[in-house]
Design goal:
With about 375 residues, this protein is an alpha/beta fold. The chain is built from 14 helices and 13 strands. The chain has helices spanning about 15-20, 30-45, 55-65, 80-90, 110, 135-145, 195-205, 210-215, 235-245, 250-265, 295-305, 325-330, 340, 355-370; strands at about 45-50, 70-75, 95, 120, 145-150, 160, 165, 170-175, 190, 280, 290, 330, 345-350. The radius of gyration is 21 Å and the shape is globular.
Length: about 375
């Protein structure tokens, strides 16, 4: 059986978890939390905080952006629910716009027309670790005085014009979920551009207290400063993650190898479409997908591959078609590509440790299906 996903494991995780336990500090901001944070900051040249999930990183971004009831946030409907949840929980309306069929990212050309006097932020989502057209999005945001929250859940190690994803907007959000390139089971990180926002992010993350300042010796006692919550992951989780971050380049290169092997073996098959990566984007091989003719063909292909012990999955059901999407959001303009393209997309097995012969088997079985 070729699984769709196998969580990353490099061999040192148990050793580091045991060390975290021996340190007697398994709560947040222990030795391994600090090591992971340092790694992220050195890689991104941005201030960062490890969080319990990317969802919570997005929640923190919405709080830091002072999103309030009645505000509107522009985003794609082709994304995970957390992108919308973060803002809806603050009372905002999710305004969905159509995606580009080539990258499956938000169509930057449609954003400006969706802006109203209630618009407060734009939340681009870097699908499959391939960057949105961020220069255009940042220009729109600057001209309309909007905040940009990058949902870079899938974008660790990806770049746009040499800049790490998550560092271009006001806030960036990473995921270290079990399904991501680097994992701590459940976890994430928030990247913060403005130093003033970073100090506030520390407070919100520490249940609304200035506890971080207290531990640094900057205050003699810590107090409740503003509303917050507990967004600190256990140091045990961070210990699991750090083992992978130590060899992040090795993991990244292995995934890129598998991605390229898929591409080379499927590029001449006329029945399907393959992923598109713009020249200004450096991706991280988070996923490899194909697009079939339509949803019926995709369903049949999935059944065929499963019968041959290959597990594949489709991705998001567009949010504007979901019950909560209809209640808490609206679609601006025409749904020309979001639904149609989402119904064609099929994700193939992709994980660190995937063998070449497994990739080749998947490719051969896809070719066999079309023959």
């Amino acid at each position: 059986m070729i699984d769709f996903n196998v969580r990353p494991y490099v061999g040192k995780e148990q050793e580091y978890i045991s060390k975290a336990i021996a340190n007697r500090k398994i709560c947040g901001d222990g030795e391994f939390t600090k090591k992971c944070t340092k790694w992220i900051e050195e890689k991104t040249k941005s201030k960062a905080l490890l969080t319990t999930s990317c969802s919570h990183a997005l929640d923190m971004s919405a709080i830091l952006a002072d999103i309030k009831p009645g505000d509107e946030v522009i985003m794609p409907a082709y994304t995970f629910v957390s992108t919308a949840d973060a803002f809806v929980l603050r009372g905002a309306t999710a305004v969905f716009v159509d995606i580009r069929p080539d990258t499956m990212n938000i169509d930057e050309k449609l954003i400006e027309d969706a802006i109203t006097e209630k618009t407060r932020a734009i939340a681009p989502v870097h699908y499959a670790g391939v960057a949105c057209e961020m220069d255009t999005i940042m220009d729109i945001a600057k001209r309309h005085n909007l905040i940009v929250v990058e949902d870079a859940a899938q974008g660790v190690m990806s770049e746009y014009k040499g800049r790490p994803l998550g560092t271009i907007g006001d806030f960036g959000c990473y995921s270290f979920h079990e399904t991501k390139n680097y994992s701590m089971g459940e976890g994430g990180a928030i990247l913060v551009k403005d130093p003033k926002n970073f100090e506030r992010a520390e407070i919100i993350r520490e249940k609304g207290t200035d506890r971080s300042k207290f531990f640094r010796g900057e205050v003699d006692k810590y107090r409740w400063v503003e509303p917050g919550s507990s967004y600190l992951p256990s140091d045990i989780n961070a210990a699991y993650l750090y083992a992978q971050l130590e060899i992040a380049d090795e993991i990244n290169n292995a995934r890129l190898h598998s991605w390229n092997l898929y591409y080379e073996n499927l590029k001449d098959l006329p029945n399907i479409e393959l992923p598109y990566v713009p020249k200004e984007c450096k991706h991280n091989a988070h996923m490899f997908y194909i697009k079939t003719k339509d949803i019926e063909e995709r369903t049949e292909l999935m059944k065929f591959l499963k019968a041959n012990e290959i597990i594949t999955v489709f991705h998001y059901i567009p949010l504007h078609t979901a019950p909560a999407g209809k209640k808490y959001g609206r679609f601006f303009g025409e749904d020309k590509y979001t639904t149609k393209e989402s119904e064609r997309l099929l994700r193939l097995p992709m994980y660190y440790g995937l063998k070449d012969e497994e990739v080749l088997k998947v490719c051969e079985k896809i070719k066999e299906f079309y023959r």
